[in-house]
């Protein structure tokens, strides 16, 4: 089961926030994370994890169709590294 924006809003509503307050809080947090990631900054959320950018280097690839080896340019990937606390919490949930 996946949780999206609506699931986060519902969880905040259970804590006593109104729907509009919860929606504003979720949009604000996700907007700030997106803003920092757009600037290619590292985003670390204590107890949850860290979003980091990783540079893949150039590689040589072999095309079996043409039989030619060619160079593929490197690219930047967004990665998520879960914190130890979050991983332990997941372990407790599994039972």
Please explain how this structure is put together:
- The protein has about 100 residues and is of the alpha+beta class.
- The protein has 2 domains: about 1-40; about 40-95, HU Protein, Chain A, CATH 4.10.520.10.
- The chain is built from 3 helices and 5 strands, in the order ααβββββα.
- It has helices at about 5-15, 20-40, 85-95; strands at about 45, 50-55, 60-65, 70, 75-80.
- It has a 3-stranded antiparallel sheet. The chain has a two-stranded antiparallel ribbon with strand order 3-4.
- A hairpin with a 3-residue loop joins β1 and β2 (about 50-55).
- α1 (about 5-15) packs across α2.
- The longest helix has 20 residues, at about 20-40.
Short recap of the structure:
The chain has helices spanning 5-13, 19-38, 84-94; strands spanning 43-45, 49-55, 59-63, 68-72, 76-82.
Notable traits:
single chain, 95 residues, alpha+beta, HU Protein, Chain A, three-stranded antiparallel sheet, two-stranded antiparallel sheet, 3 helices, elongated
């Amino acid at each position: 089961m996946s949780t999206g924006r609506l699931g986060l809003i519902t969880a905040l509503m259970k804590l006593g926030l109104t729907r509009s307050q919860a929606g504003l809080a979720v949009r604000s947090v996700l907007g700030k994370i997106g803003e920092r990631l757009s600037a290619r900054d590292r985003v670390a959320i204590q107890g949850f994890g860290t979003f980091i950018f990783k540079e893949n280097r150039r590689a040589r690839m072999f095309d079996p169709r043409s039989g030619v080896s060619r160079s593929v340019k490197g690219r930047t990937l967004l990665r998520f590294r879960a914190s130890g606390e979050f991983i332990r919490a997941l372990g407790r949930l599994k039972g």
